[in-house]
TrEMBL record, chain A:
InterPro entries with a match to the protein in the record: MetI-like, MetI-like_sf, UgpAE/MalFG_permease
Residue span, ABC transmembrane type-1 domain: 87-299
Species in which this protein is naturally found: Streptomyces antimycoticus
Protein name listed in UniProt: Sugar ABC transporter permease
Family: Belongs to the binding-protein-dependent transport system permease family.
Membrane-crossing segments per the record: 21-46, 90-114, 126-146, 166-187, 229-246, 280-300
C-alpha cells in the first residue's frame, strides 16, 4: 500500500524537474512563436472588429478614431463580390492544379524509380532545379514567356498558325497554374522518391516472383506505400494555393484579366496598402487563415480515417 | 528494352519542360533590351554576357550587390537561428515528460498549417506599432520561427536520441545543457541539415513578408529589388535587360545548391512523413 501511494508523488517530482529542464529549451522558441504567430492572430482578430470613424462635418477634415465595428468588416469582406470571387478562383485553382501536380510528381517518381541508374541523377536534378527558383523570379521568367512580342513560345505558335493568348481572361489562371506546377513538381517528386526508398526491396522481389509486372507493382505496392508522403505534399500544396500572391502580382501589369482582388491575398494586400483600410484587410487575413486551417485539418481527418489500417508500412 | 526507351523518352519530355525557361533565361541574359524584343528568344543574338552582367552589378551604385547580400543575410542568419531554436524545442518535446507537452506540440503543429501570408499582414501592423517595421529585424525575426522545424526535430529526436544514453549522461553528472549540446545536437545532425536547408530556401523565396515590411530599398532582398526594376521597366527599357540579367545571377547559386543538396533533402524530409 505504501509503495502505491508513494509512486505517484515521485512521478510528479521527476515530472517537475523534467518540466524545468524542458522549459529552458522550449522558452526561446515559444517566446518568438508567441510574437510571430499567436500575437498577429490575436491582433488581426482585434483589428478586424474595429473600424475607423471620422468625426467632423461630412466626415471630412475632422479627427479619426477607432470604434467598435462588430462583425461588419467580415460582412463587408464577404459581400464584396471581388473578394469572394477571388476565393472561388483559388479553390478552383487548387482543385485542378494540386491533383495534376501530385499525379505528375508521382508519375515522375515512379518512372525514376524504374529507370536505369545511369540517367537518374541527371533527370532528378533537372526536375528539382525549378524549386530553387523563387516564385517571383519564376513569374518574371514565365511572364516573359507569355507576353507576345518577347515570348518565343507565342512566336513559334504564331508561325504555325495558332493564335495563343496566355494572358487572356480564360487562360491566365492556368498560366499561373503552370508556373506553380513548374516550380513544385520536382520538390514533391523528391519527397515521394524518399518515401519509395524506404520501401524494403524484398517486397518487390516477392511480387515479381508472384508474377506481377512493373505496372502492377507500381499500382498495388508502391502507390499504397507512398500514401503518407502523398498526404503531406497535398496538404502543403493546399496551404500554398490559398496563399497565391507573387504570381498574380507579377503578372498583373501584363494582363488585363487580373484585378486587384484576383486572389484573397492580393485583395487583403491591396485593401491594406492601396485602399488604406487595414481593418477590412485584417478581416480578410483572418478569413484566409480560417479557410486554410479548416481545409487542411479537414483533409488530414478525411485521409486519416480512411487510411488507419493501411498506413503502418 | 522497349520499357527502357519509353521510360527515358517520357523523362526527357519532362526534362525539356523543366529546363526550357532556364535555357531561355541563359540565352536572354546575353541580350540587350532591344534584342530581347526583336530577336528569337530561344537563340543567341550578338551575345555580350559579361558586358551586360557587369551593368547589372553596377547599376544604381551597385544596389543589386546590396540586395544580394541582404538576401544572403536574411536567409543565412535566419535559417541558422531557426535551426537552433527548432532543435532545442523539438528535443525538449521529444525527450522530456511534462504537463501540457502534447498541448504545446499541437499548437505548434497548427502553426504549420497557418498560411504565412495570412500572418504577414497583421504582423506588419503589430511591428509598426512597436517600431520594428522597415528594419532588418522585421524580416529576420519572423524568419527564425519554424514550426515545421520543431515538428521535424521532435520526430527525429524521438527516434534517434536514445533515452538510455541521456540517462547514462545524467548519472555521470552532466548538466542538461551540456547533454543537449554534446549528445543531442550531434545525434540530430541529419534533421538539422534538413531544417537549415528548408528554412534557407523558404526565407530566400519569401516575397510577401519583405514586400509588406520594407519600404526602404536598401533593405530589400533580391526578389523585391528585381520586381521594383521590373515595375520601372516601362519607363526605362534598359531595366528589362537588367531584370533578366539579375534574375539569371540570382538563380545561379541556388541552382548549384539544389543540385548538390538534393541528396540531403531526401534523407531528412521523409523522417516526418513516414512516422507521422
Amino acid at each position: 500500500m505504501r509503495r502505491v501511494s508513494k509512486a505517484p508523488r515521485r512521478f510528479t517530482r521527476t515530472e517537475a524537474r523534467s518540466a524545468r529542464a524542458a522549459s529552458g529549451f522550449l522558452l526561446p522558441f515559444l517566446a518568438l512563436f508567441l510574437l510571430c504567430f499567436i500575437a498577429p492572430i490575436a491582433y488581426a482578430l482585434y483589428e478586424s472588429l474595429l473600424k475607423v470613424e471620422r468625426t467632423g462635418p461630412l466626415g471630412l477634415g475632422g479627427e479619426t478614431k477607432q470604434v467598435w465595428a462588430g462583425l461588419s468588416n467580415y460582412a463587408h469582406a464577404l459581400e464584396d463580390d471581388r473578394f469572394t470571387a477571388g476565393f472561388g478562383r483559388v479553390l478552383l485553382f487548387g482543385a485542378v492544379q494540386i491533383p495534376l501536380m501530385i499525379a505528375f510528381a508521382t508519375a515522375l517518381a515512379l518512372l525514376l524509380d524504374a529507370a536505369s541508374a545511369r540517367w537518374v541523377g541527371f533527370f532528378r536534378t533537372a526536375f528539382f532545379l525549378p524549386y530553387g527558383v523563387p516564385g517571383v523570379i519564376a513569374s518574371i521568367l514565365w511572364g516573359f514567356l507569355y507576353v507576345p512580342g518577347i515570348s518565343p513560345l507565342v512566336e513559334m505558335a504564331d508561325s504555325m498558325g495558332w493564335d495563343v493568348d496566355f494572358l487572356g481572361r480564360g487562360a491566365v489562371l492556368w498560366s499561373i497554374a503552370n508556373i506553380v506546377t513548374w516550380q513544385f513538381t520536382g520538390y514533391n517528386m523528391l519527397v515521394l522518391i524518399a518515401q519509395l526508398k524506404a520501401v524494403p526491396g524484398e517486397l518487390y522481389e516477392a511480387a515479381r516472383i508472384d508474377g506481377a509486372n512493373a505496372w502492377q507493382v507500381a499500382r498495388h505496392i508502391k502507390l499504397p506505400l507512398i500514401r503518407p508522403a502523398l498526404v503531406l505534399t497535398t496538404v502543403f500544396s493546399l496551404i500554398g494555393t490559398l496563399q497565391l500572391f507573387a504570381e498574380p502580382k507579377v503578372l498583373k501589369p501584363l494582363s488585363n484579366s487580373i484585378d486587384s482582388g484576383y486572389t484573397p491575398n492580393l485583395a487583403a494586400y491591396n485593401e491594406a496598402f492601396t485602399s488604406n483600410n487595414q481593418h477590412i484587410a485584417a478581416a480578410e487575413a483572418v478569413l484566409l487563415a480560417l479557410v486554410a486551417c479548416v481545409l487542411s485539418f479537414g483533409f488530414l481527418r478525411l485521409v486519416g480515417r480512411r487510411g488507419k489500417d493501411g498506413d503502418n508500412g | 528494352m522497349r520499357h527502357r526507351i519509353i521510360t527515358v523518352s517520357l523523362l526527357t519530355v519532362a526534362a525539356i519542360y523543366f529546363l526550357t525557361p532556364v535555357y531561355w533565361l541563359v540565352v536572354s541574359s546575353t541580350k540587350s533590351s532591344s534584342d530581347l524584343f526583336g530577336t528569337f528568344g530561344f537563340w543567341f543574338h550578338d551575345p555580350h554576357p559579361f558586358d551586360y552582367l557587369h551593368r547589372v552589378l553596377t547599376y544604381d551604385d551597385g544596389i543589386y550587390v546590396r540586395w544580394f547580400a541582404n538576401s544572403l543575410m536574411y536567409a543565412g542568419v535566419g535559417a541558422l537561428a531557426a535551426t537552433l531554436l527548432s532543435a532545442a524545442a523539438g528535443y525538449a518535446l521529444a525527450k522530456f515528460r511534462f504537463p501540457g507537452r502534447e498541448g504545446i506540440f499541437n499548437v505548434i503543429l497548427a502553426g504549420v498549417l497557418i498560411p504565412g501570408t495570412a500572418l504577414a499582414l497583421p504582423l506588419y501592423l503589430l511591428f509598426s506599432e512597436i517600431g520594428l517595421a522597415n528594419t532588418y529585424w522585421a524580416v529576420l525575426i519572423p524568419s527564425i520561427v519554424s514550426p515545421f522545424g520543431v515538428y521535424l526535430c521532435r520526430i527525429y529526436a524521438a527516434a534517434a536520441v536514445p533515452d538510455s544514453l541521456l540517462e547514462a549522461a545524467r548519472i555521470d553528472g552532466a548538466g542538461e545543457g551540456r547533454i543537449f549540446s554534446t549528445l543531442g545536437l550531434r545525434l540530430m545532425t541529419p534533421a538539422l541539415v534538413t531544417v537549415f536547408l528548408f528554412q534557407f530556401v523558404h526565407i530566400w523565396n519569401n516575397f510577401f513578408l519583405p514586400l509588406v515590411m520594407l519600404s526602404d530599398s536598401d533593405l530589400y532582398p533580391i526578389q523585391l529589388g528585381l520586381t521594383s526594376w521590373q515595375g520601372y521597366a516601362d519607363r526605362q527599357p534598359e531595366l528589362y535587360q537588367y531584370t533578366v540579367g539579375g534574375a539569371f545571377l540570382s538563380v545561379l547559386p541556388l541552382m548549384v545548391l539544389m543540385g548538390v543538396l538534393q541528396r540531403y533533402w531526401r534523407t531528412g524530409l521523409t523522417e516526418g512523413s513516414v512516422k507521422a
